[in-house]
Amino acid sequence: MKVKKFGGTSVGSAERIRNVGKLIADCKKDIVVLSAMSGTTNSLLEISGAVENNDRKRAFELADALQSKYAATIDDLYTSEEYKAKAKEVIDGIFDELRALTKNNFSVGLEKEIVARGEMMSTNLMNLHLHELGINSVLIPALDIVRIDMHGEPDEAFIRTEAKKALEAHTEADLYITQGFICRNEKGETDNLQRGGSDYTASLLGALLGADEIEIWTDIDGMHNNDPRFVEGTTPVRNLHFEEAAELAYFGAKILHPTCILPARQHNVPVRLLNTMDPAAEGTLIENKLERNAIKAVAAKDNITAIKIKSGRMLLAYGFLKKVFEIFEKYETSIDMITTSEVGVSLTIDNEKNLPRIEAELSQLGTVTIDRDMVIICVVGDLEWTNRGFEAAALEALRNVPVRMISYGGSNYNISFLVRKEDKTKALRLLSYHLFN
């Protein structure tokens, strides 16, 4: 059994839903996880925003416009009047629920209820499309099988038990369809997984049900060795270790969220990244196997702020770093990179929400300097410190690029450089040329 996840662009139109239908038609007993059709979640957030602004008229107008788009999709997707009528009945029912929700007072919980309708609609459309093709698929609501605990973390015991029950209740089914992203919380309310969305759902189900493989289908043929938006001639990386994939995802590779593969890694279930637009492409396989002595890829993380705290009192001062970290913990701000010296510490953050208060408290420890509009460039591969020459090759590639910080040794899988925003493209291209050509 495999778990196959298809993102919003993969099911973003009637044509693309048909394409996915062809890809999964012969996949017996697989679980198919779907995102909302592309654009739907943004529309639902707009509706939620109108409710928050007490503009019910606007909310209804937005719902009408979105319903018209779905009506056109239904008309294009199904060939028989019977299934057009069935789909229209289901989708119209969901929009009736949506309009009823907009009459309530706004809350975060209400917004989650509204947004969940996107995945509900895409899965119903796909399930009915498969039925029209003669495939015995079953729609299993994610709200029945996926739950998070009071800390927002997946309730793995619940998910494993309820998902198995749902599959065993439909042993006659050819395929199982469910929603990504959405779930219930410990109170039984509609909620969502946030980090990684539908990818996280697929990883959880695949890991907890012991799948042979988890497939993440997107609109690109795997994870590339550099960012194709800035570097020409990039190529897909065929094999990655879970740790390498996590580093690339965290430091800018948009195809995958860094936390979504954690369950798969913990349960040793391979993850394969594939392209719905080019199903024959090999894609990228992520597993617990490391290719030795190889640099795999480069990624960039934008909108980074560098903070330097310099203090003569730090020299041999016990507890200085503890005080620095406590300030960031107090304001719930994570740190990406860090380097230290005898008299100072430099670090980076990607969220300036609480920066003024952080700066004020750090100023009590020493002189604070802030550099904005920075970029972290991450080189990923087998970078264990005993391997010779890899860090030197990366440094040589960037010899003509000003580097604000370098982080090496914190992980066996990456070396990171902090550069100015205006030097990002040059740095990516130089690294590709020197490391891969």
Would you mind describing this structure in some detail?
It is a single chain. The protein is α/β, with parallel strands linked by helices and 437 residues long. Helix content is 40%, strand content 21%. It has 14 helices and 16 strands. The chain has helices at 14-24, 40-52, 56-77, 81-102, 108-132, 142-145, 156-168, 197-208, 242-250, 262-266, 320-330, 355-362, 390-397, 424-436, and strands at 2-6, 30-34, 137-139, 175-179, 182-184, 190-192, 213-218, 239-241, 271-275, 284-287, 295-310, 338-340, 344-349, 367-381, 405-408, 414-420. Strands 3-4-2-1-7-9-10-8 form an 8-stranded mixed sheet, sandwiched between helices. It has a 6-stranded antiparallel sheet with strand order 12-13-11-14-16-15, sandwiched between helices. A two-stranded antiparallel sheet has the order 5-6. Strand 12 (338-340) and strand 13 form a beta hairpin. Helix 2 (40-52) packs antiparallel against helix 3.
Layout of strands and helices, then pairs:
Elements lengths: L1 E5 L7 H11 L5 E5 L5 H13 L3 H22 L3 H22 L5 H25 L4 E3 L2 H4 L10 H13 L6 E5 L2 E3 L5 E3 L4 H12 L4 E6 L20 E3 H9 L11 H5 L4 E5 L8 E4 L7 E16 L9 H11 L7 E3 L3 E6 L5 H8 L4 E15 L8 H8 L7 E4 L5 E7 L3 H13 L1
Parallel strand pairs: 1-2, 1-7, 2-4, 3-4, 7-9, 8-10
Antiparallel strand pairs: 5-6, 9-10, 11-13, 11-14, 12-13, 14-16, 15-16
Helix pairs in contact: 1-3, 2-3, 2-5, 3-4, 4-5, 13-14
How many distinct helices? Answer: 14
Global morphology: globular
Uncertain runs are: none
Beta-strand residue fraction: 15-25%
Distance, first to last CA = 39 Å
Q: Can you write the helix and strand succession as a string?
A: EHEHHHHEHHEEEHEEHHEEEHEEHEHEEH
Strand segment tally? 16
Radius of gyration: 24 Å
- Residue-averaged pLDDT: 93
Reported for the largest beta sheet, the result is:
8 strands, mixed
Helix/strand structural class: alpha/beta
Helix content: 40-55%
The main sheet orders its strands as 3-4-2-1-7-9-10-8
